[in-house]
Amino acid sequence: MTTQNEKNTAVAIHLSSLAKYLIPFAGIIVPIIIWQSKKNESQFVDENGKSVINFNLSLLVYSIIIAIIFGIFFIDSIVELIHYEDQGIDVTPVKLITVAIITGLVLIVWSITEFILILIGTIKAGNGEVYKYPITIPFLK
């Protein structure tokens, strides 16, 4: 049976993912520190810690991929705009504005989804369950 102390530690690991909103990469580093200090004391804490760390590392990988994709579109839009201006054609930067709007919307949806998943994981840990985050690459097994 899972003790209240184990549940509290697992909840802290899940919630510590939100530290990235205060300090860059703290959402990865803080859960690792908590997990490392308690993983040998409880299988429940160990499983929750691995789940959280895998989720955060997966988000980092996905974020880098998305940044590269949107970066390519952004650079392409700028190059196209410069090309038209060199030709003496006055154009509205529609493509650039579109890329910026889509990027903003993706970031908003991404952040809201991440926040909701972290809350679900926190609640499940508080109830004594191990939450397996969706779309997670299993870096730690």
UniProtKB/TrEMBL annotation:
<feature type="transmembrane region" description="Helical">
    <location>
        <begin position="96"/>
        <end position="123"/>
    </location>
</feature>
<dbReference type="Pfam" id="PF09685">
    <property type="entry name" value="MamF_MmsF"/>
</dbReference>
<dbReference type="InterPro" id="IPR019109">
    <property type="entry name" value="MamF_MmsF"/>
</dbReference>
<feature type="transmembrane region" description="Helical">
    <location>
        <begin position="12"/>
        <end position="35"/>
    </location>
</feature>
<keyword id="KW-0812">Transmembrane</keyword>
<keyword id="KW-0472">Membrane</keyword>
<keyword id="KW-1133">Transmembrane helix</keyword>
<protein>
    <recommendedName>
        <fullName>DUF4870 domain-containing protein</fullName>
    </recommendedName>
</protein>
<feature type="transmembrane region" description="Helical">
    <location>
        <begin position="55"/>
        <end position="75"/>
    </location>
</feature>
